[in-house]
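Dear colleague,

Following up on yesterday's call, I've attached the two folding results inline so they're easy to grep. Please treat them as preliminary; we haven't cross-checked anything against experimental data yet. The first protein's sequence and structure tokens come first.
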Amino acid sequence: SLLLSPCLSETPEARVLERAVLESRVREMEEENRQIRLQLNQLQGTAGQPADGGNYGNAAWGASLIHVACVCAGHNASRDVVTLVKSILFHRRNPLHFHFITDAVANQILSSLFQSWMVPSVQVSFYDADELKSEVSWIPNKHYSGIYGLMKLTLTKALPSDLTKVIVLDTDITFATDIAELWAIFRKFTDKQVIGLVENQSDWYLGNLWKNHKPWPALGRGFNTGVILLYLERLRRIGWEQMWRLTAERELMSMLSTSLADQDIFNAFIKQNPVLVHQLPCFWNVQLSDHTRSEQCYTEVSDLKVIHWNSPKKLRVKNKHVEFFRNLYLTFLEYDGNLLRRELFGCPSQTGSGGSLELDEDDQCYDFRRERITVHRVHLYFLQYEYTPAGDDTDVTLVAQLSMDRLQMLEAICKHWEGPISLALYMSDAEAQQFLRYAQASEVLKNRKNVGYHIVYKEGQFYPVNLVRNVALRNANTPYVFLADVDFLPMYGLYDYLRKSVVQLDMAHTKKALVVPAFETLRYRLSFPKSKAELLSMLDMGTLYTFRYHVWTKGHAPTNYAKWRTATTPYKVEWEADFEPYVVVKRDCPEYDQRFVGFGWNKVSHIMELDAQEYDLMVLPNAFMIHMPHAPSFDISKFRSSPGYRYCLQTLKEEFHQDLSRKYGAAALKYLTAQRNI
């Protein structure tokens, strides 16, 4: 029936609502008819290709596209939402369009992540939360989510006006089934219903949790807004924006602030307009909050469809099935996101003729070449990051890359270098979670907010060392970068010394690369030298050595350690074959050449390009760094044991030389000559 109940239709407000519902139903029927005609045309082979854009319910993917909206702000929420997305992608059989309302931090992180993830049949749109703050900033809110906990109220305004329906989810949700089942419930809405919610599974809105507990008004136990079906088209027609505002203004006169953010306002609105809500079965939002009674919702854990970790305690909540829930959550937390790049059956393939099709699989170095065109997932700023730029434009970021086996170096580096750090970590999804636990348990790392940790997810058989370095380099936020390795500890005070050297050597107006001399110890426990004089004494005693002097002298010989011993001012050195010093340069320096993977020539090629671009190599007289001992990497073992590996590295070197000659002309001939003379 399209009629409202007599008691409701007596009021002018209800008559407006009834008219809006009727208009909405007519439009829906017209849209359904249009869809049927379109499908008939397609069956007859006369339909054109769907255009990009237009009605969001049918653009590009056809009528089966499912829309999901999330409010996501900050580093932690950006990490949490990935687990939600993985759980949806794992079960889904439909194309998806994610709509993220984000702050600047989450926008940067998630746009980079989805761009590099390249999941087929997934579209992503971002909406600036800052533009919506004025809509809700007037509402006092005690909830730990802050102003972003109120943003769901603004979705009719934030999302495209031609988007008719959307599933709205909190970031702390995990799916245990196909989201299409939830989307299908829209078809069960009556003509009047505009919002689908699960009943709240705690006694919060009953007001009996503690003495003098006074919650916002709600219908019975109230509803939980962690999972919402929003019929946007109908909400716009009934004047949702005005209605929720009036509700909030009225209740705030006595309540003064919200305790559960948007949920309080949604519930007060539903209490006034119960006919508008469609109650979802409780297994669509099994809530694991502090005062939950969620186990009364299901008889078997197999009944569960959505788990909601809606407690600040998250995984530490009390529930008799919490171990099952925790394992389900951890499954997606540590699940290899690369496996979710699979195509959907029946959907048009989005992968064009990529670079992999141009490679010759019979090429002996096919695996090396394939690595160069592999797109790795990247999660920028995996942990909380705060950096305030220095006012004098001399700031320097230490840039390095590492894998799981070098994690123990991080605390020591942070103690030696107080300036900003940009680290790229090459890890699997499971290792990234191990790193997270390690960082959160470390007092040293917890107290450092000026370290940017960027996860490059593992894929392929080689370590893409230069790709990982480039991720760290691109995400340095200072005018200058110190291109280091994670196995080195910089001398105490190096950060301040480099900033002074930047000014002294007029780096802002000249093309220079400042060389930090490298040394090494073979001892795991080292009394770190406090000065150059102490270092020279340890060098004479045989406690320290010039870096790789006994294995690969040419790598650092041009530094001229004999001259450095007595130098008091910076001195210029010339490039020589295989020189690979650690340098300070402007952030806009050339990137590392990504054809070099694993061991061999990854830094040599970079210094060669700096020289080709006519950078002056200046050795700093009072700077040093010391390499700490570690087991050989897997890649150096492959280099030493595999003739095929060495052959391919030589082939890549020759191709790099050819590319250098094409790029820099006759000036690059010296590199080819130097290589032949080796």
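Below is the second protein, in the same order (sequence, then structure):
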Amino acid sequence: MSSKSVDLITLDIIRDSLLAIGEEMFIAVARTSKSPIIYECLDFASGITDKNGRLLTQGNGACGFLGMLTSLVHSVIEKYTKKENLKEGDLIICNDPYGGGGSHLQDVGLVLPVFIDGELFGYCVNKCHWSELGGKDPGYAVDSSEIYQEGLQFPCLKLFEEGKINETIVEIIRSNVRLPDMSIGDMWAQISGLRTGQKRLNEICAKYGTQTVDQAIERLIQSSAEFSRSQVGMLPDGVYTARGMMDKDILGNGPFPIQVKVTIEGDQMYVDFTGSAPQTKGPINVAYDGLVSAIRSIFLACTDSSQNVNDGVFENLHVKAEKGSIFNAVRPAAVSCYYESMQYAQDLVWQAMEPIVEKGKLTAGHFITVGAYSISGTHSVTGETFVDVGPTLGGWGAGYDRDGDSAQFCTGDGETYNIPAEVLEAKFGYRVTEYALNTTDAGAGEHRGGYGIILGHEALNEGMTFSGTYGRFEYPAWGFDGGKEGSPSGFDFLLKDGTYVPQRGTGSKIEMKKGDIARMVTGTGGGYGNPFARPAEKVAMDVKNEYVTIDAAEKIYGVLLDSETFSVLGITEKRKKFLEKVS
């Protein structure tokens, strides 16, 4: 029977049911996990694939995982179908960056084969960031030089076999992580999410029949592939390139030249990173599956980001990078800060495509970095060991018709959230001294870039360690069409003895004493259009809101303001000449 024989009403119901299953799996993990980075930040993803490993649906969360669920399942299929058949009740754990994981070891994937009437139907899969997974440093390492320093590795192992848990693996985890109850609790949360998906898939197949559901899946994938081809087909054929520099790693290597060539041929898109820097000793490399995942996100932004995502969407996307390069790292390259090169790869494609896509789909450059940090020590009240890890907010680039968004996560984090200050203080026992917008004069334009943040953490006892990594320290967000570049991201430190440690980026690691303050300062997005074209009334409002200084209003925007009322007094000669030229 052809897949086209499924009637449209049934097709819509099955499509929406699959989407609902993905969301329910996601919610199950969020509500049962132990780590704030999972239940507050939502730094994870859940999804379903068919028996061939094709993604059918994915719950919201870290969109940087968009291609990694598929690669996880493919690695399971590759390993187990060659030697043995998977059995009902099996459940696989995997975090191998080079074998389906795609990111770093802390992102632990679980894969549950789903059997219907004794036959393999598909897979439920999720991938969650565990706060602690062993390794040389709590949380994650910003200065590792090989993967063996970064934590436990699970190369597609059976955590459950025919329904029976492998206690040996659990004990290995318990004995090698600093917070075993938290890590193992997160593992069980993932299992609950997978079992939720398994239950719902059984229900939908029981209601409509496995054959009908299979036919609907084929129809949905075909439909998505056809729509994706039509979207790429609307882009002008040609070769579009971008070059850039990526910040050095914490070990002192770099900076790194990177480049991309995007080719549009009919309804196909080819993305080629050949010529980019070789992998480096520091931990900012990304494996190929992580690269593909990043490019899937920008591919959606260039076509139609509102569509329901399955693997059919990406059939006409082809990604290439030289093996052993910073964008296609091989073992034993360090990858704990993989997200930095992943974000830079995405940003290159962004730059290459911005001039040719429909206006409004892409903005000027954004602050790009995940801005990941790790704070560890002893809770100032309870005396318990803690590890706090998380991403940081920053400024997005301006669009052709609007200012950039302020205090948002980077593209790789997507549908994730910040951990509230109250949770940070209660859970981890340090003090949040400051949580404010980083208002700088950078990112000026007809539409200005969004602002980053300043987030301060004060140690309330001895022995707290702060570490983190930021990109865009040396190479701020790019402006577009006359817009100015944004400001850099980095860290600075205010020590109790009055010493100020200036802002640094790429990577930072410091032992803190009681009263020391570590501050994260994230960058402004790039501006769009010439600053002289920004309406004077908007400049005045920016000054009134303390986003722009009165001095910058004159020097950058060419607007003269009353220093007390902020009313517009006039414009500079430079602004006047610009307006006459473009009128």
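For the second protein, one point worth flagging: The first helix runs from residue 8 to 32.

Best wishes,
A.L.
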